Amino acid sequence: MKKILLSFVLAFITIAIYAQEEVAEESGLSLSGSVDAYFRSTGDAPATSFANKNGFALGMVNLIAEHEANNVGFVGDLVFGPRGEEAVFGSVGSSNIVNQLYAYWNVSDNVTFTLGNFNTFLGYEVISPTGNFNYSTSYMFSYGPFSHTGLKTDISLGGGLSLMLGVFNETDATEFQPDGSDYYGGAQLGYEFDKGGAWLNTLFTDGFFQIDLTAGVNVTDAVYIGVNATDASDAFTGFAGYLQLATSDALKLGARVEYFKDKTGGIVGSLGESSVVDFTVSAGYTIGNLTIIPEFRVDSFSADEVEGLSSFMLAAVYGF
Predict the structure, then answer these.
(1) pLDDT digits (tens, 9 = 90+) for 211-228
(2) How far is Cα 28 from Cα 21, in angstroms, rounded to an integer?
(3) Reported pTM
(4) CA-to-CA distance for 212 and 240, rounded, in angstroms?
(5) Is CB count within 10 Å lower at the N or C end of the chain?
(6) Euclidean distance between CA atoms 142 and 23, whole angstroms
(7) Which domains does the chain have, with CATH numbers?
(8) Rg (Cα) of the chain, in Å, rounded?
């Protein structure tokens, strides 16, 4: 059965790649996605999302279909494999392969309404490995929201300013609102300029408030600096800095330094307030659509009962 499913998925990818230009030209439909796999040295893994298996391991197959016509459109984003299962952990049944599923209406050049399930607007990192420089993920990403289901409005205010307002189901409740759960409100204020941008994000409901800042700037054509800071009431707080250096068109080097504080215990320690610092060094070597990512990571914990961790990974990410 697994061989049949794998053959089906590979056939779908092959058809998608060869049909993409023709379909997009005739109907406006575009198909994209990624495939990733990795090797991680044996030993204990950090308590973060994805890439935690020992030895040779699988990431996911990601297939994304998009279509737009007459100012309206949709996105259907499907995931298969261990990384996909972790990404949609709040879904059951046939929905456990749906990473995103939404329709939108561009009411004008400045206003867009979106209804459905979409990946979170908080944080610096994302679910797709093609959207991250480091292959392993941060604690702030891992314990923040992955996705929201609801209604949002994106507004361009001019001069590089943008505003998003939304109302969502309980975080990561992707299919429907559970009985007795509170709806969440969300907002994002963004500013983009030629060299980068900054986004201030909030997510809130009764008894919970999270504020998040994400920013990045291309200091030169070869040097990029990014930051992410977040605080979630009665849960966690953290800060991360990202540095990337392009040594050539094919090779980039990068590092992430993150401080993450668990306010209540249970995330990085079990005895109340504790913290962790992770230092990750990665390289990205690109050959066509394929990126090879060797990575070394060290996690140091304040909690005495948690030992420090170190690991080496080698990942392959193919985007199409």
Answers:
(1) 999 999 999 999 999 999
(2) 10
(3) 0.85
(4) 12
(5) N
(6) 36
(7) 2-319 (2.40.160.10)
(8) 20
